[in-house]
Specification:
Blueprint (H helix, E strand, L loop, with lengths): L20 H8 L3 E5 L2 E4 L1 H20 L3 E2 L5 E3 H7 L1 H4 L6 E3 L5 E4 L4 H9 L10 E10 L14 E11 L2 H21 L5 E4 L10 E7 L5 E6 L5 E3 L20 E4 L6 H8 L7 E8 L2 E8 L6 H8 L4 E3 L5 H5 L15 E5 L8 E4 L5 E6 L9 E3 L17 E16 L1 H6 L2 E3 L5 E3 L1 E8 H11 L1 E2 L2 E2 L10 E6 L3 H15 L4 E3 L6 H11 L3 E6 H5 L2 E6 L5 E5 L3 H11 L2
Parallel strand pairs: 3-7, 15-17, 17-20, 27-28, 27-29
Antiparallel strand pairs: 1-2, 4-6, 5-6, 7-8, 8-24, 9-10, 10-21, 11-12, 11-21, 13-19, 14-15, 14-16, 18-19, 21-24, 22-23, 25-26, 29-30, 30-31
Helix pairs in contact: 1-11, 2-6, 2-11
The protein binds adenosine-5'-triphosphate and magnesium ion.
């Protein structure tokens, strides 16, 4: 491709709306432009990268035995109501009516549509197992579309769905997808880690997310420093050993604590530490009041609580409603003497001794509160957010926490959708059985951003060769001989099947160098008059900065050899 003809609107300045490097570089390197928040047009270079990734993913899926289809973007409301997710997915779905007043949504994911498809077609155990996938545009009205294609409202996803006779079959299909994902990401030139994940509104049991570790990531992952335990903090557990606190229980005492509501205030006021306080949170779980207890130095993991209570929504109780729901006072609520309220406590609360807790009375706290003696809890569960330094749940090692970008997610759905939508088959004995399902997604467009987060420097993008829009860029510097040789090399490389750019623009050398770095082409070949006097052309590897002279007489082979070696 000739740069003089390429639609490549680059930017010199960092666009103000872009907070993270990948977003900045995708705009600056002319990969995409935004139509409105979270909605993008992919320009020639960007779309080439997307197609490269799609092709790598497609190949891994095809090799795994999955078959490609293409499902609609428009989904009927009836189908989503049948599965019970019309409300559950909530405002994330863009819903609309047609001219006859029938309701629809734009597909945020396709479990419903695919289950509807196969429930009419799969009859017998002989039709299973089956895995169907598509690469298609998804629409989700994200609350906070941001970071460019990292969290778009319209984005490209590869989604696959497996259908098996039983859970043993699902385990196999899941492992096949796990392996296919591992391979696809490696083939893209990315370092990706699989971590245990929460299943969220998809439902189901086992689930893994594939994470690109990067500062800009919106997910937090807990890793064990000794074993291979890794989990999204949304579900990560810490090793828990009930500690025998031998401290003698002291008599309960009520003290005046005027205006001291937050844990920080109360610890300062009473000269104690957060670990010696009981944090009491008054919440509404799908509208029902529940008091949640944590050690003062722990944070609530809302996902763990939601999963445990099996509710969709947790909302804090408004200050003025504390009397109504808890017969208590905001800022001074506590478990001692509280009646008729469901109390759920984190495991670490059980062993706390002589703690501080709210006294359910304006401006008062209790000292020397002891669980078991001063209040009873029926439900002790793991509710806390893990922290760096916590013990690993699997071994004696300790956990560290890193940011990651979720580029893929696989779920063992089980029979959630096949049951609600009635997808069954007849087994060998002619008995009707429910189909067991899995679902598997890769964020194709998010992967572009993740790749840039992992592969860039201060001058621009450094594409892994496998997903680079072009592999080689030729810079002719000067007219005459240099130009002629550059054109010749360009034609020969193209004939050899290499994707090659030639910067034939009438620009200064500096501009050409900068643009080549910015758009991240793995191998740059400069053909200038001074080097030609020495009988060489100059190669530079974008990733390492290494410069290599290639003798003019073996230019084509020299470039091809070098390209082989680049990652
Ligand atoms: P997130 O937690 O980041 O919102 P999710 O868990 O809702 O994502 P899934 O339903 O698991 O997403 O979708 C499969 C994959 O699609 C994700 O792993 C991610 O790579 C990609 N993806 C999801 N939402 C978006 C989005 N808004 N923009 C770009 N890619 C997305
Ligand atoms: Mg996910």
């Amino acid at each position: 491709m000739r740069m003089s003809r390429l639609y490549l609107p680059t930017l010199k300045e960092i666009p103000a709306e872009a907070e993270i490097v990948s977003h900045q570089l995708m705009l600056r390197a002319g990969l995409m432009r935004s139509l409105t928040a979270g909605v993008y047009t992919y320009l020639p270079l960007g779309y080439r990268v997307i197609r490269k990734i799609e092709e790598i993913v497609r190949q891994a899926m095809d090799e795994s035995g999955a078959q490609e289809i293409l499902m609609p973007v428009i989904h009927t409301a009836e189908l989503w109501k049948e599965s019970g997710r019309w409300d559950r997915f909530g405002p994330l779905m863009i819903k609309f009516e047609d001219r006859k007043g029938r309701e629809y949504c734009l597909g945020p994911t396709h479990e419903e549509v695919i289950t509807d498809l196969i429930r009419d077609e799969i009859r017998s155990y002989k039709d299973l197992p089956l895995n169907l996938y598509q690469i298609q545009t998804k629409v989700r009205d994200e609350i906070r579309p941001r970071f460019g294609v990292m969290r778009g409202r319209e984005f490209i996803m590869k989604d696959a769905y497996s259908f098996d006779r039983d859970f043993a079959g699902l385990d196999k299909s899941y492992q096949i997808m796990y392996d296919a994902y591992t391979k696809a990401f490696a083939n893209c030139g990315l370092e990706v880690r699989a971590v245990e994940a929460d299943t969220g509104p998809m439902g189901g049991k086992d689930s893994h997310e594939f994470m690109v570790l990067a500062e800009a990531g919106e997910d937090e992952i807990a890793f064990c420093q000794q074993c291979d335990y890794a989990a999204n903090v949304e579900r990560a557990e810490a090793g828990f050993k009930a500690q025998e606190d031998n401290e003698e229980m002291k008599p309960l005492e009520k003290v005046k604590t005027p205006g001291q509501k937050a844990i920080d205030d109360i610890t300062a006021f009473l000269n104690t530490e957060a670990g010696k306080t009981i944090k009491s949170l008054g919440l509404l779980a799908d509208g029902e009041p529940v008091l949640v207890l944590l050690r003062g130095d722990d944070q609530l993991n809302e996902i763990k609580l939601k999963n445990y209570l099996d509710v969709l929504e947790l909302t804090p109780v408004a200050d003025e409603d504390f009397t109504e729901y808890f017969n208590s006072v905001a800022g001074f609520i506590g478990p001692v003497g509280l009646k008729g309220v469901r109390v759920v406590a984190d495991l670490r609360v059980k062993s706390i001794r002589n703690a501080v807790a709210g006294a359910n009375e304006e401006d008062y706290h209790y000292l020397n509160v002891n669980p078991g003696r001063d209040f009873q809890v029926e439900e002790y569960v793991d509710l806390r957010m893990v922290r760096a330094g916590d013990r690993c749940p699997r071994c004696e090692g300790s956990l560290e926490i890193k940011s990651g970008i979720e580029v893929g997610h696989i779920f063992k759905l089980g029979t959630k959708y096949s049951e609600s939508l009635g997808a069954t088959y007849l087994d060998e004995n002619g008995k009707e059985q429910v189909i067991v399902m899995g679902s598997y997604g890769i964020g194709i467009t998010r992967l572009v951003a993740a790749a840039i987060e992992q592969h860039h420097d201060e001058n621009g993008i450094i594409w892994p060769k496998a997903i680079a829009p072009y592999q080689v860029i030729i810079l002719p510097l000067g007219k005459g001989k240099a130009e002629e040789l550059a054109e010749g090399l360009y034609e020969k490389l193209k004939a050899a099947g290499i994707e090659v750019l030639i910067d034939d623009r009438d620009e200064r050398a500096g501009v050409k160098f900068n643009d080549a770095d910015l758009i991240g082409i793995p191998l740059r070949i400069t053909i200038g008059s001074r080097a030609l006097e020495r009988g060489v052309i100059e190669a530079k590897i974008r990733r390492t900065g290494e410069q290599i002279d290639i003798p003019l007489v073996e230019a084509v082979d020299g470039v091809l050899d070098l390209l082989e070696k680049i990652e």
